[in-house]
Amino acid sequence: MSVESVISIRDVFFSFGRHIVLENVSLDIEDGEFVAVIGPNGAGKTTLLKLILGLLEPQRGSVRVFGTKPLAARRRIGYMPQYPRLDYDFPVTVGDVVLMGRLGLSSKLGPYPSSDRQAADRALEEVSCADLRDRPFSALSGGQRQRVLIARALAAEPDVLLFDEPTLSLDPEVQHDLYELLHMLNERMTVIIVSHDVGFVSKYVQKIVCVNRTVVLHCASEINGNIVSMLYGDMDVRLVDHDSRAHNHD
To answer: Is 31 left (phi over 0), alpha (psi -120 to 50) or beta?
Structure first.
């Protein structure tokens, strides 16, 4: 493993019963990179993230994060799942949601210590949501909720951020703003994002990991309609340019 590799995956095989999800997967992600993971539904993208987090273990091969097993490095990783386990109607404030990112970081019982509250406040500042601290989470717009959930991941003060479809169901303008935020965060940490927005995300990332049972790594500048069509098969794929004009690739 390279000394600069934050994540090193070697010859990984994973299946659910007889259903093979990932096969012969090897990948290195280096410190400070912004990496997008793309692929069709069911291709293994979320499984790859869960292997990095230590939520799943490979049947064969190895996964190392900061040179150790994923579970040992979990406190250095901030994670935003595709479908966070939150009841949006539960009477909880934005500040309460962000403080959830501090759970498990202290052995103390009882109220959150001041250090946790300070970390949560810094995270809210970083995503430009400090003014929402006391607002009910249920009252937020979709874009505001996503920023608050990013703040929850940041509250753990991680070295790596993992996002699973953070812009899902958001309109293009809000997507653009979130990608700008992730680009800013990448100035001080490694960012890995699962996304279907190939055109949007390729503007910001250095590498694109194409997942479809196996993994192929590309520089973002190499991604074009032919590569996307091969990845997604015979589906009608639309690759959106950075100026938002769409072109069909059959």
So the answer is: beta
Question: What is the set of domains in the chain, with CATH numbers?
Answer: 5-87+159-249 (3.40.50.300)
Give me the phi and psi of 175, to 5 degrees please: -60, -45
Residue 198 has pLDDT above 80, yes or no: no
The better pLDDT of the pair 111, 213 is held by: 213
- The pTM of the full predicted model, rounded to 2 decimals, is 0.83
- The answer to whether the beta carbons of residues 172 and 244 sit under 8 Å apart is yes
pLDDT at 1: 42
Closest CA to 182 of 75, 78, 76, 64: 78
SS3 111: coil
SS (H, E, C) 201-247: HCCCCCEEEEEECEEEEEEHHHCCHHHHHHHHCCCCEEEECCCCCEE
Amino acid at 133: R
Q: Which of 170, 159, 214 is nearest to 196 (CA)?
A: 170
For residues 123 and 156, the answer to whether their CB atoms sit within 8 Å is: no
Neighbouring CB atoms inside 10 A of 79's CB total 22
Place 248 in a pLDDT band, splitting at 50, 70 and 90. very low
In this predicted model, what pLDDT tens digit does every residue of 102-139 receive, in sequence order?
A: 887 765 666 788 889 999 999 999 999 999 999 999 89
**Token pair 């994973």 in the structure block, residue:** 14
